[in-house]
Design goal:
This protein is 18% helix and 36% strand. The protein is elongated and about 55 Å long. A five-stranded antiparallel beta sheet has the order 4-3-2-1-5. The chain has helices spanning 49-54, 76-81, 85-88, and strands at residues 13-16, 19-29, 32-39, 44-48, 58-61. With 89 residues, the protein is an alpha+beta fold. The relative contact order is 0.17. The chain has a domain at 9-64. The chain contains three helices and five strands.
Length: 89
C-alpha cells in the first residue's frame, strides 16, 4: 500500500457517483471542511471534503502527471530514502 497526496481546491475534479464534478468553492464549517461542486449536468452539490476523499463513491481526477521516481527535481524524502543507514548518519 502506498500513500499519495492531492491538493483539493477550486478547480479540482472528481468522479462522483458516475458523474464528473468540479470544486467551485471550499468552506470551513463547524462540522469540518465542505465543498460546493458543479456537476456536469449543471447541478450544484454541497459535500463534506471527508466524503470526497474517503468514500468509495468518489475518486480524484488528476489534473496532470504526479511526481515520479525519475524526476530530476526529486523531493528530499525520495532522495533520503535512497541512502543507506551509514549514509543517513
Amino acid at each position: 500500500m502506498s500513500a499519495a497526496g492531492v491538493r483539493v481546491g477550486v478547480g479540482t475534479r472528481f468522479a462522483y457517483d458516475g458523474e464528473t464534478i468540479e470544486v467551485v468553492q471550499v468552506t470551513a464549517t463547524a462540522a469540518g471542511m465542505e465543498v460546493v461542486a458543479a456537476g456536469s449536468r449543471g447541478r450544484l452539490l454541497r459535500l463534506g471534503l471527508k466524503e470526497l476523499l474517503l468514500s468509495e463513491r468518489a475518486r480524484v481526477i488528476p489534473g496532470g502527471p504526479g511526481p515520479c521516481a525519475t524526476d530530476e527535481d526529486a523531493s528530499a524524502g525520495v532522495l533520503l530514502s535512497q541512502l543507506t543507514g551509514p549514509q543517513r548518519e
